[in-house]
Write a structure and sequence with these properties.
- With 490 residues, the chain is of the alpha/beta class.
- The protein folds into 3 domains: 98 residues, no CATH class; 202 residues, Glycogen Phosphorylase B (Rossmann fold, 3-Layer(aba) Sandwich), CATH 3.40.50; 154 residues, Glycogen Phosphorylase B (Rossmann fold).
- It is built from 21 helices and 15 strands.
- The strands form 2 sheets. Strands 1-5-4-3-2-6-7-8-9 form a 9-stranded mixed β-sheet, sandwiched between helices. Strands 12-11-10-13-14-15 form a 6-stranded parallel β-sheet, with helices on both faces.
- α1 packs across α2.
- The longest helix has 19 residues.
- The two termini are 49 Å apart.
- The relative contact order is 0.09.
Length: 490
């Protein structure tokens, strides 16, 4: 059997991409690739905007161009003939074959909605942002047309999802069984939005930010995002230094975006401030809308045959400095020394600078104190932990939303939480004691109060159960209206 010719495969893929671009522009393909490409180059020259040049570069190179590359190509069009510009364009690809995915064909999504869910597609991590994506995307797929994408491995373009990735995004709780035949048959294709909406519900990989920024600025597509928080820049002292650099790259995308949906009043305020700041660069900045997150609570499981033998105080979140777990542990130690009987239960994995906290926690455990670190748990186990707890404690010093607060309240379990920012917004709806998270005495007093005062606990429980429910269906519908209908597209 004759081995396939790799060069012929690359040329066939180039021909397909060039034809796909021509069709997106409403032009018939020429007699060959060179003829079609010359037509595209002519269209790019005649256009007063950069979008056609962006599409032509994408088709030829098999990757999204950077802003400087679009500018260089448009300058080339002004100083060279069509044939010279076409030859130069192909020559650049030959000189830098590693820059694009030259072996991939591409599909152009004209006027539709493309959603980039790379992290959720590639990973099984299921914390805050990833839960938002996996609750939202299936509802969008049920009600609207969309194309979900991941990134190519070089992080220069979007591609179709593999079967396993589709399951991670749209059926995360559906088990690990994947059609092996479909998985083996999968061949990635580039996905290129054209006069469409690109929705980014995650924080994109920093490697992809330069290409996304150019897409947002120059491609004619509308880019929209969910704004979770600005912790890496507003509270940079609580995060690793590299986070600020990575987030800075993300902000180059945000400043050219069309819309941002903030997950709380606090997050909306932060992103609106940034949007106003970029007007100093002569940019309009994105429109920023508030679309507050919900919490749907699954029905209670059958009653546990072995309920907790002592009151449980639950603390949910990764063990990172801004989550402030050391303060919770210190307050618990003071209360144990007073003779109060309760178990402190922590749920969440390690994070940045968690080693010192984990060591401290091990020392407290070794001393015989009733504290249990359960690490990461399943959704069912998490919901049961909320229901088993007498109350929960969430004293982060900076959050975009504070999902553990609303989750606890949705289960009817009162919360001791932070008295400012997004957590204060939630607390104002009832069911919480809000305190200064850095005031050890205030934290200890609040925890003592809910351990000893049954009447106060019941009052907060009643407030929690009376809170108005906002469902994931509500959130998905509102989010679509904000992020996917820019310029009338839907």
């Amino acid at each position: 059997m004759t081995a396939p010719d790799p060069v012929a495969g690359l040329l066939a893929a180039l021909d397909q991409r060039v034809v796909a671009a021509a069709r997106a522009l409403g032009r018939l393909a020429g007699s060959d690739t060179a003829d079609t490409l010359r037509t595209l180059v002519t269209l790019a020259r005649e256009s007063t905007q950069s979008d056609v040049a962006w599409l032509v570069l994408t088709a030829v190179a098999g990757t999204f161009p950077l802003a400087g590359e679009v500018q260089a190509f448009r300058r080339s069009l002004e100083t060279r003939s069509d044939d010279e510009a076409t030859a130069a364009l192909l020559g650049d690809v030959v000189r830098r074959p590693w820059r694009g995915e030259l072996e991939l064909e591409m599909e152009v999504v004209v006027g539709g909605v493309v959603v980039n869910v790379d992290f959720c597609a590639r990973h099984d991590i299921h914390t805050g942002i990833h839960r938002v994506v996996r609750e939202t995307l299936p509802r969008w797929a049920r009600d609207h047309e969309q194309v979900a994408t991941a990134n190519v491995d070089s992080y220069g373009a979007l591609r179709t999802l593999a079967p396993r990735e589709v399951q991670r995004v749209f059926d995360y709780s559906g088990g690990d069984e994947v059609d092996r035949t479909a998985e083996r048959a999968y061949r990635a294709r580039l996905v290129v939005p054209w006069r469409a909406v690109l929705v980014i519900p995650e924080i994109p990989d920093p490697q992809f930010s330069p290409a996304l920024a150019a897409l947002a600025e120059l491609s004619g597509n509308a880019v929209t995002l969910i704004g979770y928080d600005m912790i890496p820049v507003v509270s940079a002292d609580l995060r690793p230094h590299v986070d600020a650099v990575r987030f800075g790259r993300y902000l180059t995308v945000v400043k050219h975006a069309a819309r941002v949906a903030g997950i709380s009043v606090s997050a909306t305020t932060e992103f609106a401030g940034f949007a106003h700041a970029v007007t100093a660069q002569g940019l309009p900045g994105p429109q920023v809308h508030e679309v507050v997150l919900p919490t749907d609570v699954p029905p209670p499981a059958p009653a546990d045959e072995h309920p907790p033998t002592r009151p449980q105080v639950l603390c949910v979140g990764s063990h990172e400095p801004h989550k402030n777990h050391r303060t919770v542990l210190y307050a618990a130690e003071r209360l144990w020394r007073e003779g109060l009987d309760f178990e402190l239960v922590l749920i969440g994995g390690p994070g940045w600078q968690s080693d010192s906290f984990v060591r401290h926690l091990a020392e407290v455990t070794a001393s015989g104190r009733p504290v249990r670190d359960r690490g990461r748990v399943s959704d069912d186990e998490l919901w049961q932990a909320y229901r088993d707890a007498r109350f929960s404690v969430f004293l982060s010093v900076h959050e975009g939303f504070g999902l553990p607060v609303v989750e606890s309240l949705a289960c009817g379990t009162p919360v001791v939480t932070t008295d400012y920012g997004s957590m204060r917004e939630i607390a104002d709806g009832g069911g919480c004691l809000a305190v200064d998270p850095l005031d050890d005495d205030a934290v200890t007093d609040a925890m003592r109060r809910l351990l000893l005062d049954d009447a106060e606990l019941e009052r907060l429980h009643q407030e929690a159960t009376r809170r108005a429910a906002r469902t994931w269906d509500d959130y998905a519908a509102d989010l679509w209206d904000v992020l996917a209908t820019v310029g009338g597209r839907s």
